[in-house]
Design brief:
Largest sheet: 8 strands, mixed
Radius of gyration: 21 Å
Number of strands: 18
Low-confidence stretches: none
Shape: elongated
Oligomer: single chain
Length: 271
């Protein structure tokens, strides 16, 4: 669907471009001012008393609460929070950025994500886990909502048990595992992934190493990899925050498409 207009309900002013932002308190702002966002069909105006920014689009079809709206050629992600009328939906900002008239907007299903930190010390409270929370924030880029997060020791059976539970019982779309991908005797994350895997995806691990070698030559010693179990995608990245984010950012452009293929959603998407 195409964005036809951006309207402020306070002064009825039309904008060609605006900046939407997610504030620290979780509320949305438009051009620096607190405002509620709506997406509506042409000609509609929500009966809303507070400050609002109304996005008028060419077509509203098959929208559901929890869907994400991705603005083309922008990092902006909006989440549908509630329906006010048959053709009026309230939005929240998930990823900040600029929106301009004539932009194409795609509808995404939200992705259920699990983030598993593998670390003896972190599981014992001897060090803070920074990689896991960093990945939890980063998955917003692909429309991810973290539903499960845990820290486990470097024990193969424990990792396997958690992964099986998250896939077989929780049906998560993507699981990111950080830590345990090195060469030490206690690094067993790759072996755990291989034990639960139905299929291996060698290209993801290969590409993570080929891209991150520009940051540090030692990345070629990392044993990061990706597998599938059922319809879930599981990816192992290094345990440091820097290494985990660099690997995730290297492959983030293909992750959503990978899930769409696994879930047989690719027939629904137009991108």
């Amino acid at each position: 669907m195409k964005l036809l207009g951006i309207l402020s309900n306070e002064d009825r002013r039309e904008y060609g471009i605006c900046y939407v932002n997610k504030r620290g308190d979780g509320q949305s702002s438009v051009n620096g001012n607190l405002a509620t966002l709506f997406i509506v069909k042409p000609g509609d105006m929500p009966a809303y008393e507070g400050a609002a920014c109304i996005l008028r689009v060419s077509l509203l079809k098959d929208l559901e609460i929890g869907n994400l709206l991705a603005v083309a050629e922008s990092d902006v992600l909006l989440r549908i929070e509630r329906q006010h009328a048959p053709s009026q939906w309230e939005l929240s900002v998930q990823q900040s950025g600029f929106i301009s008239v004539s932009s194409e907007i795609e509808t995404w299903r939200s992705l259920r994500v699990g983030v598993l930190t593998v670390s003896d010390k972190a599981s014992q409270g001897l060090r803070d886990d920074t990689a896991g929370p960093a990945l939890s924030r980063a998955v917003t880029l692909i429309g991810g909502i973290v539903e499960e997060q845990a820290i486990v020791p470097d024990e193969k059976e424990t990792i396997e048990k958690k992964l099986r539970h998250w896939v077989d019982q929780k049906d998560l779309h993507i699981i990111l595992v950080t830590g345990g991908t090195g060469l030490s005797e206690r690094d067993v994350t790759p072996e755990a992934l291989e034990a639960v895997a139905h299929k291996k995806i060698p290209g993801i691990g290969e590409f993570m190493r080929s891209r991150t070698v520009y940051y540090t030559p030692r990345s070629i010693l990392s044993r990061g990899l990706a597998v599938t179990r059922g319809k879930s995608l599981i990816i192992a990245v290094p345990g440091s925050q820097k290494g985990a984010l660099e690997c995730f950012e290297a492959v983030v452009p293909v992750l959503r498409h990978g899930v769409e293929i696994l879930r047989d959603w690719e027939k629904e998407c137009g991108h």
